[in-house]
């Protein structure tokens, strides 16, 4: 019996053969969510550009963006604030889409890249390469991070018994978390041994977009686009997979193929976002749940909305990171963890017993 | 030698004359091997350090005969760490073994279910927020933090009883939350973070007898107490329904044993720092050696845990003297491959 934890809330649709058709789209709710998320992105970008050590007014921002010029304010907007918020949006979207794909592929409501060790693997390979070859650019880190993500992702999924029709959600989560713990303890030790005073390496323990640059955004943009397009391309198959593995097989879906495709997309999205922003936790776990609750389980709607809401979450986490401890900043990964961990507890409480 | 006496002596090595090894005999030999290795590593750990001494020096230093060199170094630096390795190893391994029984998951361990992170957060909070406090307060705070985190975990997982699955998942979440807090403090107070990172990595660097005396009473009291519950843990392992049918007050036993094992783990972590994977790996090795009955395998787990710690700490001191590696790193590096092997093995079995 395959669990379709992700689709549990869909009610009888998962069981009744009569419901073997496209999951209904809640057009009204979807439109509202889309408009609200877009509005939040717009407001968030403005807010994020405005605040910091020097506060900028709306007029200054608009002038800097439209006219440019070489005033200090324009330099701040173009050189520091805009790249940072754009990066936050791209990374947030990537993490959220990676999360929604992974939850569908693993049929596990707790299956997110940060839980299952994918992010940790990416960060580890990045740190290891940086300690052995200093001065690597984020562009060359991307493939390395993807390799790390792939290794750890495959390791966790294979060991947790995926693909044999048995996925115990607790088991897979514990496997992923244990792997993450191993990796982070080794990473901490590496940081101590290399140079405990360089806080730049802390970046790999907890992600953040504080030091985001245009080149970071340029690095991640193509991968985000590939991931999103790819996700939309397999959205229909993910929908059918949500009905349960046996039913999906009966409907002629090559389950293994969809899983491999989905995993590749997860690795691309997670690897690229870790390479530019470090391991950001809980965006990939929380966002798909919220969006699913609002608009239902149709992936054609779910995926783009997750991208938008994910961008929102990281933009606002980044804004909050500047308010928590002024004048210095908290990594945005810490903020998302503070939001996400209680949410994880809520999800864990909804799990059935393991009998 | 007192520390060795706290762990039961391993089965004596049978006189091996015949060449074929029955599984039983092989098992006994392995067990004897663990015992011998413990003794040898205890000796080696007394010898190795920034300066390495001969076994004869160790003998003279321990008997206090006044001959040989390095008497002061051995008794004041090497001996406390050797003893510390024993209590830390026993404490973590027994605690981990009980948790695996209670949560009924082979992957449960203090550093997975949030206890270690809770203790770590409290310790670092004290270091940074109350810098004028005496450093003897750190173990107290870490202890309280570990206890508090399991209270939170249990309360959050409670829903008409705390199912093992929910305990594990909520533990993971609370651990993540505490970890975020730790990282926040590390970033917030970067000047002190080097010391905090060293504690987090679980280094036994420059520990003296006081750490040992801090941990010893907890191990001496809680390990026998947990062994007292060994039979009930076996019953619990049958599943909630069956255990209840056998007259076991499931929820109460679970709460008590969980609380005791967490107390043990927080006491150890508080004084020794976050040492990973001993609590995860040692019970597994022990179960393979002597089977799954708690009464037999918990003591063996303690022995294996002590052995792991002795090996790790000796490597940490001896690999690159006078520089010292954090012991927790070594236990992770030793423990991680074994853990991965374990995962693939249980993965093949296709779940519980």
Architecture overview:
The complex is a heterodimer of chains A (355) and B (352). Chain A is mainly α and 355 residues long. Chain A has helices spanning 27-50, 58-66, 72-106, 118-132, 138-159, 169-194, 214-233, 235-241, 245-250, 255-277, 283-295, 299-324, 332-350. Chain A has one domain (24-347): ABC transporter involved in vitamin B12 uptake, BtuC (Orthogonal Bundle). Chain A starts with 26 loop residues before the first helix and ends in a 5-residue tail after the last helix. The model of chain A is unreliable at 1-19 (pLDDT under 50). By secondary structure, chain B is mainly α. Chain B has one domain: ABC transporter involved in vitamin B12 uptake, BtuC. The two termini of chain B are 41 Å apart. Chains A and B meet through helix 5, helix 6 and helix 13 of A and helix 7, helix 8 and helix 15 of B.
CATH topology type of chain A: ABC transporter involved in vitamin B12 uptake, BtuC
What is the CATH class of chain A?
A: Mainly Alpha
Helix and strand content put the structural class of chain A at: mainly alpha
Helix content of chain B: over 70%
Distance between the termini of chain B: 41 Å
Could you name the CATH homologous superfamily of chain B?
A: ABC transporter involved in vitamin B12 uptake, BtuC
Q: Tell me the overall shape of chain B.
A: globular
Please trace the helix and strand order of chain A, writing H or E for each element. HHHHHHHHHHHHH
Count the domains of chain A. Answer: 1
Oligomeric state of the chains in view: heterodimer
Number of helices of chain B: 15
Please give the most extensive interface between any two protein chains, plus how many residues each contributes. A-B, 57 and 61 residues
> What's the number of extended β-strand segments of chain A?
0
Q: Sketch the topology of chain B as an H/E string, one letter per element.
A: HHHHHHHHHHHHHHH
CATH architecture of chain A: Orthogonal Bundle
């Amino acid at each position: 019996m395959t669990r379709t934890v992700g689709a549990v809330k869909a009610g009888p649709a998962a069981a009744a053969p009569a419901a073997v058709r496209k999951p209904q789209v809640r057009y009204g709710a979807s439109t509202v969510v889309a408009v609200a998320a877009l509005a939040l992105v717009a407001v968030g970008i403005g807010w994020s550009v405005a605040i910091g050590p020097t506060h900028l007014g709306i007029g200054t921002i608009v002038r800097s963006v439209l006219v440019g010029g070489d005033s200090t304010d324009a330099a701040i907007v173009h050189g520091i604030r805009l790249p940072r918020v754009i990066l936050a949006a791209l990374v947030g979207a990537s993490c959220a889409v990676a999360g929604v794909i992974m939850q569908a592929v693993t049929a596990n409501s707790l299956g997110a890249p940060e839980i299952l060790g994918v992010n940790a693997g990416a960060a580890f390979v990045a740190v290891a390469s940086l300690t052995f070859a200093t001065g690597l650019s984020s562009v060359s880190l991307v493939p390395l991070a993807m390799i790390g993500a792939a290794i750890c992702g495959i390791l966790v999924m294979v060991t947790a018994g995926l693909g044999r029709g048995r996925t115990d959600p607790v088991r897979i989560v514990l496997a992923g978390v244990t792997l993450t713990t191993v990796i982070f303890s080794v990473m901490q030790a590496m940081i101590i041994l290399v140079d405990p005073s360089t806080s730049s390496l802390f970046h790999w323990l907890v992600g953040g977009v504080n030091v985001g640059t245009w080149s970071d955004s340029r690095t991640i943009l193509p991968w985000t686009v590939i991931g999103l397009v790819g996700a939309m391309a397999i959205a229909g198959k993910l929908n059918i997979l949500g009905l349960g593995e046996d039913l999906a097989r009966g409907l002629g879906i090559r389950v293994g193929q969809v899983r491999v495709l989905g995993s590749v997309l997860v690795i691309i999205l997670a690897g690229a976002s870790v390479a530019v922003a470090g391991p950001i936790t809980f965006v990939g776990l929380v966002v798909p749940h919220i969006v699913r609750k609002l608009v239902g389980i149709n992936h054609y709607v779910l995926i783009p909305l997750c991208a938008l809401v994910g961008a929102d979450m990281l933009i606002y986490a980044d804004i909050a990171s500047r308010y928590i401890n002024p004048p210095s900043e908290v990594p945005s990964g810490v903020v998302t963890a503070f939001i996400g961990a209680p949410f994880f507890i809520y999800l864990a409480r909804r799990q059935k017993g393991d009998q | 030698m007192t520390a060795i006496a706290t762990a039961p002596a391993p089965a004596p090595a049978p006189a091996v004359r015949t060449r074929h090894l029955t599984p039983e005999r092989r098992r006994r030999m392995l067990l004897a091997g663990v015992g011998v290795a413990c003794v040898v590593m205890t000796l080696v750990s007394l010898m190795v350090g920034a300066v390495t001494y001969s076994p004869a020096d160790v003998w003279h230093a321990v008997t206090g005969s006044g001959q040989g060199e390095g008497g002061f170094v051995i008794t004041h630096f090497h001996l406390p760490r050797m003893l510390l390795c024993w209590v830390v190893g026993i404490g973590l391994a027994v605690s981990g073994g009980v948790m695996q029984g209670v949560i009924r998951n082979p992957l449960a361990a203090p550093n997975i279910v949030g206890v270690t992170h809770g203790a770590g957060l409290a310790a670092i909070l004290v270091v940074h927020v109350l810098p004028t406090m005496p450093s003897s307060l750190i173990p107290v705070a870490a202890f309280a933090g570990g206890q508090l985190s399991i209270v939170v975990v249990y309360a959050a997982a409670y829903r008409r009883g705390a199912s093992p699955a929910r305990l594990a998942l909520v533990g993971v979440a609370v651990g993540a939350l505490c970890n975020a807090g730790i990282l926040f403090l590390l970033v917030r107070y970067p000047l002190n973070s080097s010391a905090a990172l060293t504690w987090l990595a679980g280094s036994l660097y420059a520990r003296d007898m006081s750490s040992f005396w801090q941990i010893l009473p907890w191990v001496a009291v809680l390990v026998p107490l947990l062994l007292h519950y060994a039979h009930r843990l076996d019953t619990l392992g049958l599943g909630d329904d069956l255990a209840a049918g056998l007259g076991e007050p499931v929820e109460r036993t679970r709460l008590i044993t969980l609380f005791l094992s967490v107390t043990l783990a927080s006491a150890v972590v508080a004084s020794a720092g976050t040492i990973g994977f001993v609590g995860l790996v040692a019970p597994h090795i022990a179960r393979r050696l002597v089977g799954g009955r708690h009464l037999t395998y918990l003591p063996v787990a303690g022995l294996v845990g002590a052995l792991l710690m002795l090996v790790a700490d000796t490597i940490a001191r001896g690999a690159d003297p006078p520089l010292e590696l954090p012991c927790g790193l070594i236990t992770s590096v030793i423990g991680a491959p074994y853990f991965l092997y374990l995962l693939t093995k249980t993965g093949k079995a296709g779940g519980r």
